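Hi W., the 2-phosphoglycolic acid complex you wanted:
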Amino acid sequence: MRYFLVANWKMNGSQSFARDWLKRLGRHSDDNRHIIVCPPATILGNPEIATLAEQQGIGLGGQDCHAASDGAFTGWVSAPMLAELGVSAVIVGHSERREFAQESDSDVAAKAAAAHQAGLLAIVCVGESLAQRQAGAAEATVEAQLRASLSTSSNTSNTLVAYEPIWAIGTGQVAQPADVAAMHAHLAQVCADMGLARMPLLYGGSVKPGNAGDLLALEHVSGALVGGAALQADSFAAIVDATPAGEG
Ligand code: PGA
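Structure:
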């Protein structure tokens, strides 16, 4: 199996941090373990960083894109603009954008479509709140989100789905492997029903070196989306190294 290890720096980092991080992580990326780093757009815009990422075999991703390719949208960045920088992927529908920018599932699907149109891999995030989990509605909630957040252009080569329970993001409260296994089995079935069998399904939410091995060994888990622990190169390297080796 090919694993995807995605680092989401959120609004953190600097040009020098990016240089050091890429040099540190380069030797951890190989054919089975594909590293994608999603720093702020200002770092993506530095051609020196793009060259270094390419030399290190590390993909660059945006943290969001607008659904339109251009227009009067102050402050936004479009998918073709990311592609022009040599970026190969973009996160869409992260829970922080769903919460702080009120993005709906249909907004996320439109962004995924824009990403595909620009030739980018769309990393589509879904996840339930603690209240939804406690109400026993986690699987139904995430299934509905997933069905509505994928675009008609989504296929298993241009999309990664990241299951990120909102209550586990940035809290240190990681989901239990049994719960992740159950959710991923359900999402794998939903994707198969949609004609998207073998869709890569990532887990995100307080992934750390100490829990990554157990999570990444689960069936239907094809990688991790990492926030906090990605801000320390050594921690992210340890997470990459915890990925099962070889063909799975
Ligand atoms: P975390 O963030 O690893 O800090 O929980 C994950 C994410 O927001 O993608």
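Residues 8, 164, 169-170, 204-207, 225-229 surround 2-phosphoglycolic acid (CB under 6 Å).

W.
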